[in-house]
Amino acid sequence: MHDIQLNELADRTVLVTGGAGLIGSRIAACLRQAGARPILLCTLEAYSRNTYRDLFGIDATDPAVIVGNVQNPDVVRKAVAESDYVIHAAALADVAACTRKPMAAIHTNITGTQVLLDAVAACERTRRLVFVSSASVYGNGNPEDWARPCEEYRTVRELLKAVYGRVPPRFHEHAQLRPMSVYANTKAWGETQTALTLSAVGASYTVVRYFSVYGEPQVIKEDSHSWVVAWFATRAALGLPLHLNGGGHQIRDLVHVEDIAAATVRALVAPQAHNETVNIGTGTPTSIRTVAELVAKQYPGTRFVETPMPPGDPLGGYAATHRMEAVLGWRPTITVKEGVARYADWLDKTPGAIPSWLRAESGAATA
User: Is 149 exposed, middle or buried (CB count within 10 Å of its CB: 0-12, 13-18, 19+)?
Assistant: First the structure.
């Protein structure tokens, strides 16, 4: 995309819900580079205050940081009224946590989204809302599509089948949604509700479907199976074995968080993104086992252990990127190989990113 479109953000105020988290904080940095003024609305409850401050660079005393809940109509209305653009990234985004506590997912991902949509629909100042969705809405795709002949991609399909033992689906934005988890279901609802609410008042919106986000300064959470690069690298750094759920044959399209942030900011102002749904992915399928092997290259001697598949964990697929390239005029720049090496290097230089509870497990495992 031409930089002149990003220039439209100069001196504009952009509300980023969930703005203190991993993705939100990277989006905020990208907005500042474009000359915008980000306002970050976040509960600051997903991580410790030290993580927000030391790893994500968030100062809770900064006037641009609103410590509040997206479910609070008064807080949301006031923040929206001060903003030219809105990026809705606030969510209970951990798949396992949503599965354990579906009501918490409903409160944040559904009620919070509706509160925000109501505020945007009532505010004439807002130029566009970007709703952050997820590739998890595709689930495993349509199994019938995996065997459908495709002359144009016959060589690629044969290669993928040889490498992964099956032909992983390539997810197109027009595909039927097949969410397999509470988290995915809330995102599918949010997409539909965004279109219904904002189309009714003629407000502009864009839905961005993130594929698997990774990259520094991502940190792991206990009892979670999300964020595979961070999990594998952190365990490998401590000499712990890497758990390959289901043998590690799941396919992911891994997108570095810096690329995610860049794409999201472009979605705010790209003219062709008006009322569009756009995948944000690399178009490259990577198996979980391949991620483990890339991590093991950074930490020689790393062992693998096969473990059961957790509930709601899809076999996955990879992004069709044609619409992304056409709408945003952009492609991701960081390869998985480069990104994994970058994360391992960052982790080695940032030992505070390794949580104490995992260090304790490491000590028990090696004692």
Answer: exposed
